[in-house]
Amino acid sequence: MLIHHLRVIPLLVRMHVRSQMEYRGAFWLDRLAQILSYGSVFATIGILLARFQTLGGWTWPELALLFSFQLLAYSLGAAMSFVQLRDLEELVRLGTYDTLLVKPFSPWAYLVFSGLNVGYAGHIILAVPLLCWAVLSVDFIWTAPSVAFLLAAILSATLLTAAMITMIGATALMWVRSNHLFSIFFGFWELTRYPLNIFPGSVQIILITAVPLALTSSVPVGALLGKPIPILGNWAGPVALAAGPIWVLLAIAHWRYATRKYQGAGG
Question: Is the Cβ–Cβ distance between 219 and 239 less than 8 Å?
Fold first, then answer.
């Protein structure tokens, strides 16, 4: 079965990418719009820094590193999960999810790879050059261990993002409706563009525990740069690296539980 999946997945991805690139002009215009949208957000942070010099003790290059890290990790994780799991609610509501259950293929794998979102290319095109500039501009001495930590932290943040989105989407298998939870997710996600220490203690706790999106941004970046991390302290680095794999295991368990509870749109 594993070999069968590995053979089919590249075909699913290739078919979806071809469908997305059928109208290339429209596709790249959408990517340009994404770049301008997130570029304006980064420009807003720049305006704040021009007025106040630092934000929570973070300088302009450090905030650029934080912003690009958060955007890159999110885009990689969401490309594997967001649109696919957001649409799961509609599949369940219409009863068409049942057709996936009779296929000789994992429903999760089919959803994810048949809908791989290459539209996040705009996020990546903006995030990667900005990350490279920030790495070169930040007042930090880079070593092999620190580079390894940065790469591992990006991977962990990517896994955590995909895992949380998967768990939200899988809830539709039990409740039929789950997309309202994405509004909560993105509400907290927008906060993670900024250092964790500028928020009240209650918000810091939520961003580390219940909605641990700080572990995809300011916690790993702050640990890398030697910034004081609220609540976690010296454990910030190890926690950030372990969060991704742990939440993937939680997402697998949640998906299996939701699948067992699934009874179809008719209940």
Answer: yes
Nearest to 196 by CA among 178, 209, 182: 209
Cβ–Cβ under 8 Å, residues 208 and 215 = yes
Please name the helix (run of DSSP H) or strand (run of DSSP E) that holds residue 144, with its range, or none. Answer: helix 144-170
Closest to 162 (Cα-Cα) out of 74, 237, 239, 89: 74
Distance of CA 185 to the CA centre of its chain: 10
Which pLDDT belongs to residue 62?
Answer: 93
User: What pLDDT shows up at residue 4?
Assistant: 57
User: Consecutive 10-residue runs of the chain (267 residues): their mean pLDDT?
Assistant: 61 68 70 76 76 84 93 92 90 87 82 80 89 93 96 97 95 88 92 92 94 95 95 95 97 94 70
CB 232 within 8 A of CB 239: yes
Cα 249 to Cα 97: distance, rounded to the nearest angstrom: 23
Q: What is the CA radius of gyration of the chain?
A: 19
Strands (E), 18-161: none
